[in-house]
Amino acid sequence: MSGPQLSPLRVNPKTQEPYLQLPAPHDNIIITPARMSDADDIIRCLNDFAIYKWLEGPPFPYLPSHADEWLATVTSESNTILEELGVAAKNNPDGPPILVSSCPVRILREVLEDGSEVFLGDLGTPRCCYPEYNPGFEKEKLHEKNLSRPVGDPEIDWCIGYYLASSHHGRGIMSVALGTIVNDWMVPRMGAKTIKGEAYSDNWGSRKVFEKNGFKLLKTVEFEGGRHLKNGQIKEGMCVYVYKS
Ligand SMILES: CC(C)(COP(=O)(O)OP(=O)(O)OC[C@H]1O[C@@H](n2cnc3c(N)ncnc32)[C@H](O)[C@@H]1OP(=O)(O)O)[C@@H](O)C(=O)NCCC(=O)NCCS
């Protein structure tokens, strides 16, 4: 498949897998769908203190069963979007690109000179679940309402979840990857108008990635008594950033 319905995704001629390529100087990095074979790399990353200490969502410790379950979910989501794009390409090959429910590519990979690929991390684009709120009625209501909005609804609050292998931290990779996903896919192909970025107040790396991509600080929420994460960390507060397209 090619043409406007898939744009700006490219297709690997050997594997037929779609991908986004980061701009230079990071053009040796691509973003592809997840693969079931990513399990070991994901388990390694999500049990790495440099990564899990900042994350509240994934289970801890992160087990092979968690990776298999997650991969089954996200590969199925990605396949569904690619099928929708395939149908649109067949029915309306030159027509305006359709809006879809999420981004079919999310795994960052470094392409080495011999063509082999190294898993670098994950960048997901889910609907916002308002992590700055403590569990309760208000948070559930907001989330439920956000999930109920139809594809393309400009009122949807999107959010970002990401991590990068610690071997590659501090090289500017996630800043460029976030800009690519936002500008090349979320805004034009998901119709995203409001994208939120939430980071614990002391996660300066993540906060800078948002700021470098034009996300503005909306509010800082202090957790009364600290928020105790299942990975043993205690967090004092969270910064909520917002990007408006
Ligand atoms: C957050 C994360 C994705 C950033 O990815 P990255 O590719 O290392 O980030 P970049 O190299 O693009 O850095 C962006 C900016 O933040 C700065 N930065 C990166 N890590 C930092 C840190 N630990 N402390 C302070 N600044 C940091 C960089 O110097 C850069 O600033 P500059 O452009 O002014 O030099 C990565 O550190 C990571 O995976 N962390 C663990 C998981 C996580 O925190 N996920 C986000 C949860 S909200």
TrEMBL record:
One of its GO terms (molecular function) is acyltransferase activity, transferring groups other than amino-acyl groups. It comes from Cerrena zonata. InterPro entries: Acyl_CoA_acyltransferase, GNAT_dom. It holds the Pfam family Acetyltransf_3. The lineage of its organism: Eukaryota, Fungi, Dikarya, Basidiomycota, Agaricomycotina. This is N-acetyltransferase domain-containing protein. Residues 153-216 form the N-acetyltransferase domain. Transmembrane segments: none annotated.
